[in-house]
Design a protein that fits this description.
The complex is a heterodimer of chains A (about 120) and B (about 525).
Chain A: E1 9-13, H1 17-29, E2 34-37, H2 40-46, E3 52-58, H3 66-75, E4 82-86, H4 91-99, E5 102-107, H5 112-124
Parallel strand pairs in A: 1-2, 1-3, 3-4, 4-5
Chain B: H1 2-10, H2 17-40, H3 47-62, H4 64-82, H5 88-161, E1 163-168, E2 175-178, H6 180-186, H7 197-203, H8 206-222, E3 226-233, E4 239-250, E5 256-265, H9 267-325, H10 331-353, H11 356-361, E6 367-369, H12 371-388, E7 392-397, E8 404-406, H13 408-426, E9 434-442, E10 446-452, H14 481-491, E11 496-500, E12 506-513
Parallel strand pairs in B: 7-9
Antiparallel strand pairs in B: 1-2, 1-5, 3-4, 4-5, 6-8, 9-10, 10-12, 11-12
The chains are: A alpha/beta (about 120), B alpha+beta (about 525).
């Protein structure tokens, strides 16, 4: 299944309710609309990946991890610009993510300016 | 024949009076009998000769009075039975002869009696002397046996304690006494005889010789005690460690007579001390590693758990600022975002206060364990530590306790933590340091384990706070031990609490639930 980047949707995948919610609010305060999913499986099942222009995802989640999600999308030839946010980021994980095409790798908590700049950059591609 | 009969009669020093006087009658009667026999065969008249013999015999064997009686009897017998018809003159003459003979015999008997008395006296003296000598010898033998026994005990004590004793006179003197154990410690053959001082010094490790010589030289000069440690090289090349102590013995005028002292082989003791030190270090490493592992796991979990609400709070704050700094600030949105910040910050605080949840999430390997075995293992591990601080450990472990479903490593950590806390609490107290560990089945479905000490006790008015994270009364503590312990116990479905131990110290107890169908 191929992936046509048709829309301008920002997708958020994080298992933590409060992080997910506040992230959505942050983007809204910057004038960016987004959709939030509590798991990678949920995002894949939603069928929104075609219209997603930027993906913000946690790495460690119950079930499929953020890196696995990235690999799955890559395998489906659906290279969505992806921003990883994680509390557990080590250098190895960071390299792996960037090599697989991640646009940013942010440790939690992150600077809102950096995140929003990255999202905007991804949307303008 | 006459004589033999009489002498037989007279044997023995104490002849009774009856016998003595009886002898007078019997001997005179015998003389009369013999004379009658002679007359029968018409032999010459012999009575007087026989009578004299009878008188002499009686005097000799029976004494003076019976002798005189014999003389009188002889006179009567002769006058009335043998020669009743002789003239008065001849009768008187015969009587005179008897009288003179009796007097002579009196002297002889007296002389003999005196002699006998003297002999008896001397004999008694000699017997006394002999008895004294025998007693003296027996006493000497007894003392010698005691001395030998005492020496044997001393030699055994020297062997057991590897301590030899010696006496040494400074030059021009030499070693004067060298106990058996000295030979052994110093590696000399006892058959080679007492070593000379130079030989002793030759056995000392070359690096120690000069130092020892100097110590001894100074002690001799100042007439004072000395003490030094040194190494001995045995003939086989084995190196032993020894310590020698010397004490000066001074004469009446204050001059140095000799040194007496000991040589102690401390090789084994040194070895044991090293072993103990190694064991102690290993235990310290283990305890440290165990604490670090707990801390490491806890930190990782804590970091993850706390990071989420902090991230959310930061997001909320960023959102709030964005709403406020817009060209057209939206206060309602900003307020909403700020409320989110508060919510998430509180959540972060909640997580820190509920570390229990972390130990619940942590990998746990629960099995049926024997709590007494766990306690015994820990006591074995901490025995040296207790010894080091002079703490005695008393155990009162309940018999036939059911096994409990628990993670033995975690339970070990709890018990070890409680014991280490007690050790810390007792390190600086001067009274009796006693740690009591008790295990019991309580309320039927719980085991209660308590650790009681005689330490400084609980901080007053802060008893409840001791379980808070990061609360500590120790200069180097981080205040996690009791918090983690309580989390572990609660994750097992038990409780952990503290109480004062009257009159001194504290008591920590925790419970673990007994499985419903616990194998007894």
């Amino acid at each position: 299944m191929s992936c046509h980047k048709a829309g301008k949707l920002v997708a958020i995948v994080d298992d933590d309710d409060s992080v997910r919610g506040t992230l959505q609010e942050l983007l809204r305060s910057a004038g960016l609309a987004s959709r939030a999913f509590e798991s990678a499986e949920g995002f894949l099942a939603s069928g929104h990946q075609q219209e997603t222009a930027c993906l913000i995802t946690d790495i460690r989640m119950p079930g499929m991890s953020g890196l696995e999600l990235q690999a799955r999308l890559n395998a489906e030839r659906c290279r969505i610009p992806t921003i990883f946010i994680t509390a557990h980021g080590d250098e190895e994980m960071r390299f792996q993510a960037l090599r697989a095409g991640a646009v940013e790798f942010l440790p939690k908590p992150f600077d809102d300016e950096v995140l929003i700049e990255s999202v905007r950059a991804a949307l303008e591609r | 024949m006459n004589q033999t009969v009489k002498s037989k009669w007279a044997t023995g020093p104490a002849i009774s009076i009856a016998r003595r006087y009886g002898l007078a009658f019997v001997s005179v009667a015998a003389a009369l009998g013999l004379a009658r026999v002679f007359m029968h065969f018409h032999l010459p008249q012999p009575f007087s000769a026989f009578a004299l013999s009878a008188i002499a015999l009686t005097f000799w064997y029976a004494g003076t009075a019976p002798g005189i009686l014999a003389a009188v009897l002889s006179s009567i017998v002769r006058d009335y039975l043998f020669e009743p018809n002789t003239s008065t003159e001849s009768r008187l003459l015969f009587d005179l002869v008897f009288l003179v003979f009796a007097l002579l015999m009196t002297r002889v008997a007296r002389a003999r009696n005196q002699l006998e008395l003297r002999v008896a006296e001397r004999t008694a003296e000699l017997t006394q002397l002999n008895d004294d000598l025998k007693r003296e010898i027996a006493k000497h033998n007894r003392v010698e046996a005691e001395l030998r026994l005492s020496e044997a005990y001393l030699a055994e004590a020297q062997r057991l304690s590897h301590t030899g004793s010696w006496a040494w006179s400074p030059p021009p003197g030499d070693i004067r006494y060298w106990s058996e154990e000295c030979y052994r410690v110093q590696g000399f053959d006892p058959k080679g005889g007492q070593p000379r001082f130079e030989e002793f010094l030759q056995r000392v490790h070359p690096d120690d010789q000069a130092r020892i010589a100097e110590v001894i030289e100074r002690a001799v000069r100042k007439k004072e005690e000395f003490e030094f440690d040194y190494r001995i090289i045995h003939p086989g090349g084995e190196i032993r460690y020894a310590r020698s102590i010397g004490h000066p013995i001074l004469g009446p005028s204050g001059d140095l007579v000799e040194f007496v002292g000991t040589i102690i082989d401390v090789t084994d003791r040194r070895q044991a001390e090293k072993e103990r030190e190694r064991l102690r270090e290993a235990q310290a490493d283990l305890a440290h590693a165990s604490r670090m592992t707990t801390m490491g796991e806890l930190t990782a979990s804590l970091a993850h758990e706390v990071n989420q609400p902090i991230t959310a709070a930061v997001n909320g704050a960023s959102t709030c600022i964005r709403w406020l700094t817009r060209d057209d600030p939206d206060l309602a949105e900003a307020r909403e975002a700020a409320a989110g910040v508060i919510r998430n910050a509180k959540r972060a605080a909640d997580i820190i206060n509920r570390i229990r949840s972390i130990s619940k999430k942590g990998e746990s390997n629960r099995q049926l364990i024997d709590i007494n075995e766990v306690i015994r293992e820990i006591i074995a591990l901490l025995g040296n530590e207790a010894h080091r601080y002079s703490i005695s450990i008393l155990t009162d472990l309940g018999a036939n306790l059911p096994k409990v479903m628990a993670d033995s490593v975690q339970v070990q950590q709890v018990i070890m933590n409680l014991i280490m806390n007690s050790f810390d609490a007792m390190k600086d107290v001067d009274r009796k340091r006693e740690l009591a560990i008790r295990s019991r089945r309580t309320e039927d479905q719980y085991l209660t384990i308590s650790v009681t000490d005689t330490g400084v006790g609980l901080p007053s008015e802060q008893t409840n706070r001791i379980f808070d994270a990061f609360f500590t009364t120790k200069p180097h503590g981080i205040g996690m031990g009791l918090r983690i312990s309580r989390s572990i116990v609660e994750s097992h479905g038990g409780r952990l609490w503290a109480a004062d131990n009257s009159p001194h110290g504290a008591s920590f107890s925790f419970t673990l639930p007994v499985p419903v169908e616990a194998p007894e």
